[in-house]
Amino acid sequence: MSELLLDKELGAIGEAVRWTYFSSTVCIY
Questions:
Q1: What's the predicted TM-score (pTM) here?
Q2: According to the lineage, what is the superkingdom (predicted)?
Q3: How many domains does the chain have?
């Protein structure tokens, strides 16, 4: 159960990192 929750949290963090990277890339270019 806790493993599934951890996977969900990591997935959410990955999404945030991906959007931050995407936004910074768009700002640079």
A1: 0.52
A2: Bacteria
A3: 1
